[in-house]
Amino acid sequence: MGPKGNIIAGVGVVLVSLHNYIIPHAFSLTDLCSNNVVEYNALLSRMQLADETEVKNIEAYSNSKLIVNQVRGE
Length: 74
Prior knowledge:
2 strands, globular, two-stranded antiparallel sheet, alpha+beta, single chain
């Protein structure tokens, strides 16, 4: 945990349907971690939320070139 359980990073993700239905989701990380770990957690959260809401197709966007390239297998 972070110092005294403090929030280390806040992560927000948004799912938007083809019909512009918006599902916002936010969570906190309490362990010290790199920006890449935060990005991975955001991606995993989006995928988990999509699975829970039975989404069949998903497009993920990120400003982290490292994460995008790794997900693409590059």
